[in-house]
Amino acid sequence: MAITAVLLSVLLVFFGKARQAAQGVNCTEQLRQLYVGLAAYAQEHRGYLPRGGTNSTDNGGFGEWQGTAWLKPTINPGAGFPAYCGGQDVVDRLVVCPANRAKVNATHAYQYTPEGYPYICNYEAMTQTGLSRNPANLWRIDTTRLLLLFDSGVGADWKGPGLTSAAGWDRLGARHRNRFNALWADGRVTAMQASELKVENLLPEVRD
Known about the structure:
Layout lengths: L1 H42 L44 H7 L25 E3 L24 E4 L11 E2 L16 E5 L4 E4 L16
Parallel strand pairs: 1-3
Antiparallel strand pairs: 1-2, 2-4, 4-5
């Protein structure tokens, strides 16, 4: 029986690691699918990405953005990002890392999805309401240097849809072996440690 117990413990560890690896792969694929939707959105909005903020008006003049939080727009849902990614039900699934599915706080339904706690965005690129005077434009920036989406915290550690170059870095969630998956503006997905995230990777840089 002792031998059986040891074997079972080894198997549990093995399957646990295999499950974590599979979740990391699925997370990567979801971020890539989201990029397809982001690129399609930008194509029809003069190169601009969907807004990341959560308020109901946009003081920067980008009225054509139509939505609020990028993952669940509330002004005109039919014209927001989910319309470019297969609909809200598809987005609700894609924006949640497989390792971050948990019961959510129903009092903040506009931020959350039924699937769990969603990825967070780079507010410098997908700007908040009132901060959209210089949003990222995929047609004009160096996309190889700009990060867009990140694995997030869960529960109380999920504090909103995004982070800035100066605040909110604690919203990152190291979901995959002490690393978080991050989506770049050119469509790449990389696994990063918090120490690897640089301020310059959050600021849109215009191409020469």
